[in-house]
Every structure is written in C-alpha cells, then in structure tokens.
Amino acid sequence: MSEFYLLVKIYILAFIPVFVAVNAVSVLPIFVGLTADLKPKKRNEVLSRSILTATLIAMAFIFVGKIVFNVLGVTVADFKIAGGILLFIMSVGYLLPGGIQRGKYIEKEDVGVFPLGTPLITGPAVLTTCLVLRDEYGLMPTLVSLIANVLVVWFIFANAGRIIKFLGKSGSRAFSKVGDILLAAFAVMMVRNGAIEIIRDFLR
User: Fold this and answer.
1) In this model, does residue 15 exceed pLDDT 80?
2) ω into residue 119 within 30 of 0, thus cis?
3) Structural domain tally of the chain?
4) Radius of gyration of the chain (CA)
5) Contact assessment for residue 64 and residue 195, using Cβ atoms and an 8 Å cutoff
6) Which spans are transmembrane here (predicted)?
7) Distance from C-alpha of 153 to C-alpha of 47, rounded to nearest angstrom
C-alpha cells in the first residue's frame, strides 16, 4: 500500500509543475482570439494540430532536448528570446489597423502549429519543466504528466466555441483584442525572462 501511495504521489508531483507551466486558462483568450472568426470545423482542425504539435515537440524534447541544445550551443534563454520576438511581431500585426487580417492569416498560416502548439502550449517553461521532471522522477511519470496535461488543454480549448457563442460577435471581437494584448505581453515576458537568465549567467 505504501508503494502504491508513493507511486501515485510521484505522478501527482510530476503533473502539477507541467500544469502550472502550460497554464491553459491564461492561453484560452489567445486561442479564442485566434479562432473567433473560424467555423467550428476549422476551429477543431486548428485545435487538433495545436495539440498534436505541442505533444510531439514536448515528447521529442524529453528524449533529445539536452543533446540538441548542447550540440547547437543554444540555451533555454535563447529559445525564450527567439520565441518571444516572433510572438510579439505577430501580435502587433493583429493589433495595428491595416495589419494582419486574422481569418486570411489563419487560412494561409497554420496557427495550430505556431503560435498555439508552440510556444503557447508547449513553450520554454514546459520544455524546461519536462527536462527537470525526467531527471527528478523518471521518464514514465514525465510522459504521463505531459499527456494528462495535454488532455486538460484539449478539454478547455474544445469548449471555446461555447465561449464564443456566449460572448456574441461583438464580445468575441473584444475578447479577441484582449487575447492579442495578452499574446504581446506573453511575448515580452518571454524576452524579459530570457534576457534576465543570460545576464545572470554572464555575471556568475
């Protein structure tokens, strides 16, 4: 019984950090904003691609992340800054008058892959957390916690259509703009955190 309790405790402890790192609730406004003008079928396609992308990237990173970073000489801080800059450019394009037209952009560029799949669902925080968890608890608890969290994200995003319906056309557009601002803020946060990490490493 004690061994079973310990095993359950390990899986719970592995689940919580990934859940916090993913933070699906805060990403939901961005998902709604990016898919508000889409038909339910297209929105479900974007959702499926984002979940698949997030899962594959995270799983691949669990197995080969450290090797790839060491070979390329890239750090997690570098990853944060690069992803943040790309996200910021995209969010500004949505916010400014005459910028990116959301519906056309989504048809041409698969936002299910970027920015939803990565770095919003599976970003530097999730990738780093997964690496730490593998060292701390082992491969299987890390994989199970990742898959469980991806299912949580899928459930939350799958109900985005109800949220859009509840808000109505005007409310969805307003919520969309809030999501764009959050996306820009998220991008700035990624760049800031990456820069702080680089400065700290330089000063050591």
Assistant:
1) yes
2) yes
3) 1
4) 18
5) no
6) 12-34, 46-69, 81-100, 112-134, 140-160, 181-199
7) 10
pTM for the whole thing?
0.73
Name the burial class of residue 70, with classes exposed (0-12), middle (13-18) and buried (19+) by CB atoms within 10 angstroms of its CB: exposed
DSSP-H helix ranges across the chain: 2-22, 24-35, 40-72, 76-95, 102-108, 124-137, 139-158, 160-203
Instruction: Tell me which amino acid residue 109 is.
Output: E
Cβ neighbors of 113 (< 8 A, separation 6 or more) are: 49, 50, 53
Question: Between the CA of residue 130 and those of 7, 36, 52, 71, 135, what are the distances in Å?
Answer: 18, 31, 17, 19, 9
For residue 196, the enclosing domain spans: 2-203
Phi then psi for 23, rounded to 5 degrees? 50, 60
